[in-house]
C-alpha cells in the first residue's frame, strides 16, 4: 500500500530538496556535547494534520505519518508530489488534568512556502488543513 509513496519519496527527495521550516531558536539543551533537544518557535502557517488514536502511541504516529505521506506523494488535488518539509511534528495529547498521555496523537506536515496560500486538498478526509498561530515546538 505504501510502495508508490515510498518510491516517489526516494525518487524526488534528496537531502538538498528537504525544506527546513523557518524557526527562531529559543533554547538548545545539550549534555556532554550531544544535542538533547531544541525549543523552537515557528511562525503562523498552514499545516496538513491528522489525528490518530490507536492502541499504542507509536502505532498512531506510524499510521498518521503513512497517511500524510500519501497526501505528500500525489494523493492531493494537485496530483503532484508536494516535497518534504522537516520536521514532521507529532503532538501528544494528554487527559483533561494533563497528568498522563492519551492514545491520541496529531501528526502534522508543514506545507511548503509555495503552497501556503493555496494548499492542495487531501483526498483522505481524515487529513485537514489547519492554520496554526505562532507555535512552540520541541525538536530532537
TrEMBL record:
Domain of life the protein comes from: Eukaryota
InterPro entries in the cross-refs: Reg_factor_effector_dom_sf, SOUL_heme-bd
Gene3D superfamilies in alphabetical order: Regulatory factor, effector binding domain
One annotated GO molecular function: heme binding
Family statement drawn from the similarity comment of this UniProt entry: Belongs to the HEBP family.
Official protein name in the record: HEBP1 protein
Organism, scientific name: Anseranas semipalmata
Gene name as annotated: Hebp1_0
